[in-house]
UniProtKB/TrEMBL annotation:
Residues 59-107 form the HNH nuclease domain. It comes from the Bacteria. SMART domains: HNHc (SM00507). One of its GO terms (molecular function) is zinc ion binding. This is HNH nuclease domain-containing protein. Pfam families: HNH. Coiled coil: none annotated. It comes from Dictyobacter aurantiacus.
Length: 144
């Protein structure tokens, strides 16, 4: 049998705690619960709009780790899930279109397409776009 080291979905530490496959300590487990609840709320919102919501907790946790659980735009506090391409412009809730954001950046973005946003430097928008493209491709690989 090959021993596969389990790593915490929140902080990426090796898990030695209890029987958990996803969290290294109580605090991390609670954060994952909160995110799983957040995704459920987005699923409901998507369902009402008759739009797809394919985001999975593991995928979202990987994006959160990438941005160190901070706002992807300004590195401020992570307060909300932001649709990079706004829902009103056809953006769906899936790994290739979601990043953590603070409320200030989310308000600054508004309902603009990424290339239309002026309140956040385009350099930052482009870096995020590249990251999301990469996630998009790796999520396709997993489902094949
Ligand atoms: Zn942890
Ligand atoms: Zn921000």
């Amino acid at each position: 049998m090959v021993y596969i080291e389990k790593r915490c979905w929140v902080c990426n530490k090796v898990i030695t705690w209890g029987q958990s496959d996803t969290a290294c300590k109580l605090q991390c487990r609670d954060r994952l619960y909160a995110e799983s609840y957040r995704i459920e709320r987005h699923k409901e919102a998507s369902y009402i709009r008759n739009r797809p919501c394919r985001l999975q907790l593991g995928e979202w946790a990987e994006t959160l780790r990438h941005y160190k659980w901070r706002c992807a735009f300004c590195k401020g506090p992570f307060e909300s899930l932001d649709h990079f391409v706004p829902v009103s412009k056809g953006g769906a809730t899936w790994v290739g279109n979601v990043v953590p954001a603070c409320l200030q950046c989310q308000i600054a973005k508004g309902n603009l397409l990424p290339q239309e946003v002026e309140a956040i430097p385009q350099e930052i928008m482009e870096r995020i776009a590249l990251y999301l493209q990469r996630r998009d491709r790796s999520s396709l690989k997993q489902t094949q």
